[in-house]
Every structure is written in C-alpha cells, then in structure tokens.
Amino acid sequence: MRPMRVLVVEDDVKMASLHDSKRRAADSTGRPEYLVPMGEHPRGKVTRDPLELVLQRAINRMRRLEAVTDVALSQLPLDELLDELLLRTRDLLEADTSAILLLDPEGKELVARAAKGLEEEVERGVRIPFGQGFAGRIAAERRPIVIPDVDHADILNPILREKGIKSLIGAPLYAHDRVLGVIHAGTLARRDFTEEDAELLQVAAERAGLGIDRALVHEELVRLDTLKRDFIGFASHELRTPATVIYGVLATLRSRREQLSDEQVAELEETLYTQSVRMKDLLERLLDLSMLDAGGFKIAPSRFHVGERTRELIKTIDPDLETDIRIGIPDDLETVADSQAFDRVVTNLLMNALRHGGPPVLVNAEQRDRHLRFVVEDRGPGIDEAVASKIFTPFTRGERSQREGGVGLGLAIAHSYARAQGGDLRHEPVPQGARFEFVLPVHGVA
Q1: CB atoms within 10 A of CB 35
Q2: Which residue has the higher pLDDT, 193 or 217?
C-alpha cells in the first residue's frame, strides 16, 4: 500500500513525508494546500489530504455496510437478527436511533418490532397504517424517503417528536418482491441525509430483508412444530380425561343401571353432563384456533358502545362477579370493529383475570392514535416468569394454571382474534397482578 500522505509540524520546523513530492501544492506562505488536522504525531500534528479523507471515509462506510449485509446474520433467530441489524444500521449512517416495523399478516399496518434509541415504539406497540405517514409511505411506495426536518413533516408516530428526532431516513424491507416492513434511522440534530445515504440504506435493507424473511419462515416452522407437539400432548391428556370419564359413566349406566339407586344415577348423569360440557368447550376452542390459524375468520365491522357491550359480556360470564370488576370506560366511547371477535377477546381476558388473577379486576378503554386500547388488569399473583414470554402460545400453562385446571388456550385464542382484526394483544408487566392491553384499529372512525 502506498504510504499515507502526512504533514508533520513541530514548532517552526515544517517537514513533509510524501509518496510523490511532485504532487505537493503550496500557497504563498509555503504551507501545503488542503491539509487538515487529523490528530497527534510523535513529532507534532498530523494532517491528511482531503482525497485520502474521502477514500478513508468510503472504506469505513463499506466496512460498515458489509457488517450490515453479513450473510452470517441470516442464521440468527429473528429477535437477535433484528437487534444486530439495528445496531449496525445505526453505525452505518452514524445516526442516533434506528427502528424496524414489520407489516402485519393482513398487510394493513406496520407494527414496531425492534428499536434502538426508540424502545418506546415497541413498548407502546406503535402501529402505522400502510400508505400513511413516514413509514407507511416508504412501504407503499417501495422506495427510501428522507425527512430533513421532522418538525415540518407528516409524522403519525408521536414518539419521534417526543424523543426529539430532527431528521429521518428510511427504506423498505422486502424479499421476493413482497414488502416485509420498513427500517428507519434518525438523528437528534438536524441533518441533510444525502442520496448516497439513501442508496447505502437501501442496499442494506435489501440484504436485511432476505435475512428477515428466512428468519420469519423459520420462526413460523418452529411455531407450527411446537404447536403440533403440544397438541399431541394436549389431546393425549386433556381430551382423553373427559372422554374416559364419559365412556366409564355410560358403560356403568348401560350394564348396571337397574342395580343403582336413583341418587347414584343422578350423580352419574351430572358427571356425564359436566364432562360433556368440558369436552365441548375444549373442542370449540380447538376449532377456533384451527379456523384462525387457517385465516378462515372474516371481519364484519359494526358500530357499538364499548362500555355497554363489556357490561353485557360480564353478565354472560357470571352476573354475581360484577362486584369484582371495576369498569372505567367512558359512557360515550364507541368503536367500529367486528363485534364477535371483540367479544371473544374480551371474554377470554375477563375469564383469565377472574380464574387466575385476583380482585379487583380493572377494565379500562380509550381511543387513541387511531386505535381502541382496551385494558384488563387484575391484582392476583401475576404471570409465572417461566412462561411470560410465551403466554400467547397455545397450550402454555404456568404451574398455578396447571393446578387450577387451565388448558392454556384462552389467551392464545384472544391473541389470535386480536391479530385477525389487524390488532394486537400484549402482556405488560406490573408490580402486582397481570395487565393485558388489547389494541384494535378503528375502522371508519376519523
């Protein structure tokens, strides 16, 4: 490699170590032209030619780009992959924040999945409509977008302004001509991102999109394999138990009915009814999951009062439990959503709080950021730490739930119904008890 061109300055003595002395240019004072300070040298200050600065900066950027497009990243689990991509993208663009939003299964909204410097996006479950705002336009138009001044731009995500972001740059994430989401970076000081910055981010996003697509496919295959394995265990125990009892009762009644007293027959019939109801409930839940997993649920939005409908649902569960539930929903709060799916989510959340939590159960709702946010919180022992990360996975049960006869389907069904509407269901840790937030996009409401 050719020696780096430097200028060494020490007191009044000026010397230059040059690869080619003929390339030196001097002004009227005899000083080399276009040399800038670069640090300290044993014999004085070191300066570099601007051309070498440009080359070195290009080399550094290329190295950072290679880090973002590193093939080895695609072998990481999805969450680890997103984490590494954000760190390396932020470094690539010398930005202060970075975030990835993934398109929901219905392709209607971008959901914040991972962030650096903007962790609140993920914590609050930020959702941006496809085609709207900064991220929504990037996904819809499939091209990078730069916003030099956030204060004078169409930004739907309030967190960006809350965090003091001044400039933004973003690019679409896609694989096999299918949009997966958006990656964006921001700075706390105003910055004019260049066309080169946009091209770098787009190249990084294209490679990252392929890795994310592979990770999503792998995550889904793992989920399905786990679901199959858990279903076999579920069927062999939860369904076998009532089936065995039902068969035993029927066999007894058929062979010994004349030998039994009326009281014994009545007791067996009650057992038969109880176990039949249990099996019916289990089968209905499994059919719900199967239908939702296959995308067979069709959304039929309608307008209704949230508080009124919630009170009706509580009465259907058990009218005597109304004293254990405190409702803090505004009387005039209306929404437009699929009422059946709403009922399934809320009913499962309430039953989970009443069965496994502790009174009082707090129910609140508000419409904010184009979404209905419905919260159910209890004061019970909370979610077991061992299963907190997978409570929406079918057949997941903590130790307390197993002791209390839970089957691990209620929250999974609620989560699936929420997702089927383009919404989400999240568990939020609290000091005592359990807190769930049901986020639902509002259809046809300004």
Answers
A1: 19
A2: 193
